[in-house]
Amino acid sequence: MIQIAVPEIAWADRRERILEFPDGWDVRLYPMRGFEAEKIGREELLKALRNPIGSKPLRMLAEGREEVAIVFDDHTRPTKVEPIARAVLEELKASGIRDDHIRFIAATGAHGAMNRMDFVKSWERKSLSATRYTTTTHFTNARGSGRRVGVLR
């Protein structure tokens, strides 16, 4: 038997599932780019936000603005939202954006809407999840929520 370990429920309890395949099968694992990369720490995140390539720093872009929407991966992706969000929030607050003017939007695409538990699981601590900031789901199936922009040919 060929055994391959794949991540399972990466946003919840970070476990692996062992998949087994017959010996005669040609089985290959193609993880996404960066899968085995080292975690990016807080300082590295802040450095990237303060020194972006081809853009002004986030803090400068936010100065003079009143409202901010932060779009993040939905619960089907293993992205660690909280460390990134904390760095982004630090820069937004330094530019004068108040907490009650920041909202988080889950980019669900064609996936189902997220509930409160899905939000909590997407974040590593409950402190940022749906309690202090307005959080919502981009829900594509709501009647009247879309606007026709053209036809793909």
Features:
alpha/beta; single chain; 2 domains; 153 residues; 3-stranded parallel β-sheet; globular; two-stranded antiparallel sheet
Quick structural summary:
The protein has helices at residues 42-50, 58-62, 81-94, 116-122, and strands at 2-8, 15-21, 68-73, 102-107, 134-137. The protein is of the alpha/beta class. α1 (42-50) crosses α3.
What does this structure look like?
It is built from 4 helices and 5 strands. Strand 1 and strand 2 (15-21) form a beta hairpin. Helix 1 (42-50) crosses helix 3 (81-94). Helices cover 23% and strands 20% of the residues. It has 153 residues and is of the alpha/beta class. It has 2 domains: 1-37, no CATH class; 42-137, 3-Layer(aba) Sandwich (Rossmann fold).
Structural class label: alpha/beta
Name the strands of the widest sheet in spatial order. Answer: 3-4-5
**The CATH class of the largest domain:** Alpha Beta
Name the CATH superfamily assignment of the largest domain: LarA, N-terminal domain
Instruction: Please write the string of helix (H) and strand (E) elements.
Output: EEHHEHEHE
CATH topology call of the largest domain: Rossmann fold
The proportion of residues forming helix, as a percent range, comes to 10-25%
DSSP summary, beta strand count = 5
Large-scale geometry: globular
In terms of per-residue confidence, which ranges show pLDDT below 50 for 5 or more consecutive residues? none
- Figure out the total of helices: 4
Give the count of structural domains: 2
Largest β sheet strand count, sense and barrel closure? 3 strands, parallel
The N- and C-terminal alpha carbons lie at a distance of 45 Å
Mean pLDDT: 81
Relative strand content: 15-25%
Q: Which architecture of the largest domain would the CATH scheme give at its second level?
A: 3-Layer(aba) Sandwich
Radius of gyration: 19 Å
